[in-house]
Design a protein that fits this description.
heterodimer, A: 113 residues, mainly beta, four-stranded antiparallel β-sheet, B: 111 residues
């Protein structure tokens, strides 16, 4: 299994809603990431988890809250988002060493209305 | 801050043509990856290069890592419409490093 699975694929939410994005991998990777990607731009790093601990938070607003329940799962909890938060949210995982590259999920297309 | 410059930013060619995409930096990277991304999908890892001067081939795609590990190129021979997509290079450091992405090259191959 070389897949990173993200759900849902599409999400529309209001600015007062609470929702969660989910990510799962079964490759035994110990690093997992959340990226945000706007149209025609490269992915921007949001959070990095290594060995289930948050290791990097790229100054992301608190309305985004990551969670790593175990080594295979990564969640991103969303609350009180703004329309400018609409984007493609990508989850990725990698083996311990960054030199081996990262594997990305298909992404969740989020629209905030 | 490590930066990766990709060129060209956009490339529109006819089926059968050859092309080269460049990824350059003033920083040294432990590794460099190339990804292809189609609209609405996540990036797909094509290759990882780790050794200066390394050349890897993936069917019609040839990837090269510069001797000083600061730059890389992707060459596509006889491009096909299925090659259309956003090509991203990304540099990695050591350990549980994050990836530094270039801005991408949007390739359009017309039949």
């Amino acid at each position: 299994d070389t897949e990173v699975t993200q759900t849902p694929k599409h999400l529309v939410m209001g600015m007062t809603n609470k929702k969660s994005l989910k990510c799962e991998q079964h490759m035994g990777h110990r690093a997992m990431y959340w990226y945000k990607q706007k149209a025609k731009k490269p992915p921007e790093l949001m959070f990095v988890y290594s060995y289930e601990k948050l290791s990097i938070n790229e100054s992301v607003p608190s309305r985004f809250s990551p969670e790593c329940p175990n080594s295979s799962l990564l969640n991103l909890h969303l609350h009180a988002l703004q329309p400018e938060d609409s984007a493609l949210y990508l989850c990725a995982s990698s083996p311990g060493q960054g030199a081996k590259g990262a594997f990305f999920g298909q992404g969740t297309r989020l629209t905030v209305v | 801050t490590q930066l990766l410059e990709q060129s060209p930013q956009f490339l529109s060619i006819q089926e059968g043509e050859n092309l080269t995409v460049y990824c350059n930096s003033s920083s040294v990277f432990s590794s460099l990856q190339w990804y292809r991304q189609e609209p609405g999908e996540g990036p797909v890892l094509l290759v990882t290069v780790v050794t200066g001067g390394e050349v890897k081939k993936l069917k019609r795609l040839t990837f090269q890592f510069g001797d000083a590990r600061k730059d890389s190129s992707l060459h596509i021979t006889a491009a096909q419409p299925g090659d259309t997509g956003l090509y991203l290079c990304a540099g990695g450091g050591s350990g549980y490093s994050t990836l530094t992405f270039g801005k991408g090259t949007m390739l359009l191959v017309s039949p």
